[in-house]
Write a structure and sequence with these properties.
By secondary structure, the chain is an alpha/beta fold. It has three domains: 109 residues, Glutaredoxin (3-Layer(aba) Sandwich), CATH 3.40.30.10; 80 residues, Serine Threonine Protein Phosphatase 5, Tetratricopeptide repeat, CATH 1.25.40; 82 residues, Serine Threonine Protein Phosphatase 5, Tetratricopeptide repeat (Alpha Horseshoe). Helices cover 59% and strands 10% of the residues. The protein contains 15 helices and five strands. β2, α3 and β3 form a beta-alpha-beta unit.
């Protein structure tokens, strides 16, 4: 695959389906329609060859002599040369006519070729989904060593840290994931869950005693809601926070409202429960 002779070759009508169409399902293939008498073709050819060489086996170049292969030229509507069509996954994804400057060709190819780091991250995501956490973690870490700001790797490592109970590390990693990152939809509910893992767990003996003395004690109810949130009893936590907010809409300078909003992220704002509890919150705050 990495041999130069296999990456740069002449294509014919007889082998085009195999050498270009089928090959493009593995890596993109540039098809250069040219002729020996065409001066711009002679200028463009070395530029394309150099770009293929720079990419070390990640893209191939097929050269089609339009004089020798008129049927291929007709099939692909070649009316002027040099004409370039780039195939990926069996389809033409980019094309241009004329001898473009090398910088423009380089930019075009960079847009088409998958980012090697993102390919590694996708591989790690598949391993993570398969439960092969240790293998996935090694790939994520290798990517971050080369590019510490890569959000996809931070997402994977954050997921692993969360599920292993390393909550401060998970929070720091997930905070680096941008909304444009594939898989970002997992971040808000996870960050919301991490909200309830901050600090020490409430003293439940003290909470129980306070509620026995006063069932509407807002401080005790708030602590109880946090305990429910830590334990994954999210609807009970929401119900309890509603009681706090009915007593004091700004309890803890907004702490109860913030905890309530975090819980809505966990249950899903668009879910039936999420919509119901959002209405409940509006009724309490604006009544």
């Amino acid at each position: 695959m990495n041999d130069r002779n296999k990456l740069i070759f002449d294509a014919t009508a007889a082998d085009f389906s195999e050498t270009v169409i089928a090959r493009s399902r593995e890596i993109p293939v540039i098809v250069d329609f040219w002729a020996a008498w065409c001066a711009p073709c002679r200028a463009l050819g070395p530029v394309l060859e150099a770009e293929v060489g720079r990419r070390e086996g990640r893209i191939a170049l097929a050269r089609v002599d339009v004089d020798a292969e008129p049927s291929l030229a007709a099939e692909y509507g070649i009316q002027s040369i040099p004409a370039v069509k780039i195939f990926s996954k069996g389809e033409v994804v980019r094309e241009f006519v004329g001898a473009l400057p090398g910088e423009e060709i380089r930019r075009l190819l960079d847009e088409i070729l998958p980012d090697p780091a993102e390919e590694r991250i996708e591989e790690a995501h598949r391993l993570l989904d398969a439960g092969r956490w240790e293998e996935a973690e090694k790939i994520y870490q290798a990517v971050r060593e080369r590019d510490p700001a890569r959000p996809g790797a931070a997402l994977g490592l954050g997921l692993i840290a969360y599920h292993q109970g390393r909550y401060p590390e998970a929070r720091e990693l997930l905070a680096r994931v941008t909304p444009e990152t594939p898989g970002y939809e997992q971040v808000p509910p996870l960050m919301a869950r991490l909200f309830f893992q901050r600090g020490p767990a409430p003293d439940m003996a003290a909470v129980t005693a306070a509620l026995e003395a006063n069932p509407r004690d807002p401080e005790a109810l708030y602590s109880l809601a946090l305990a429910y949130g830590r334990g994954g009893e999210y609807l009970r936590a929401l119900d309890t926070l509603l009681e706090v907010l009915k007593t004091d809409k700004n309890y803890g300078e907004g702490a109860a409202r913030e905890a309530y909003l975090q819980l809505l992220e966990i249950v899903g704002r668009r879910s039936p429960d999420g919509k119901r509890y959002e209405r409940e919150l509006s009724m309490v705050l604006f009544s």
